[in-house]
Amino acid sequence: MARAKLDKHFSSKEAVWHYGADVLDSEIYSQCACYIQHGNTSVREHSISVAMTSVAIARRLPFKFAYSSLVRGSLLHDFFLYDWHDKEKPIDNHALGHASRALENAAQWFSINPLEADMIKKHMFPLNITPPKYRETVILTIADKICSFKETFEIGAHRHEHKTISNVLK
Ligand SMILES: [Fe+2]
Ligand SMILES: [Fe+2]
């Protein structure tokens, strides 16, 4: 795992598209646009916001980070691939269990390293009580909570791309 400072010419958004291109361009990941995470925000929009926020936080800190993993782990942290709001198909224990499901899916569809696995598995800390092993996981737990709060209360709503099920599948 190579840690470095982020190239100052990259914006946080550019860093997400640079390091997360294989995830963002994949067909399976596009399914995340079909599921709502919080409020009117899809899982894909949420995950992109979290990745951008993770990069924005990390680059302000006086430490080096593994930016490729920071982006990929952030993009995949909620890669659970179901609608947890669907009352006709209730999901057992979504709050505590979705991190493990996201990790299973991420490992199945993408090549992920131990740091990225730690980020995905532990992003719900302290709800999931196992503490983060890496500084990138700590950043993700913070970024996820900031974005979740904003989306739930629709603060500063911004949309990277909004896709309904019908226009994703057409
Ligand atoms: Fe989550
Ligand atoms: Fe999340």
Structure description:
- The chain is an all-alpha fold and 170 residues long.
- It has one domain (12-78, 89-169).
- 54% of the residues lie in helices and 3% in strands.
- It has 9 helices and 2 strands, in the order αααββαααααα.
- It has helices at 12-19, 21-24, 27-30, 43-59, 67-76, 94-109, 114-122, 135-152, 165-169; strands at 36-38, 41-42.
- A two-stranded antiparallel sheet has the order 1-2.
- β1 (36-38) and β2 (41-42) form a beta hairpin.
- α4 crosses α8 (135-152) and α5 crosses α7 (114-122).
- The protein is globular.
- One fe (ii) ion binds next to loops.
* Helix share, percent: 40-55%
Q: β content, as a range?
A: under 5%
Distinct small molecules bound, one entry per kind:
fe (ii) ion
Distance separating the two termini: 40 Å
Low-confidence stretches: 162-170
> What class, by secondary structure content?
mainly alpha
Task: List how many beta strands DSSP finds.
Answer: 2
Rg (CA only): 15 Å
Mean pLDDT: 91
| Number of continuous helical runs | 9
Q: Strand order across the biggest sheet?
A: 1-2
What's the helix-strand series? Answer: HHHEEHHHHHH
Largest sheet: 2 strands, antiparallel
In total, the number of domains comes to 1
Please tell me what the overall shape is. Answer: globular
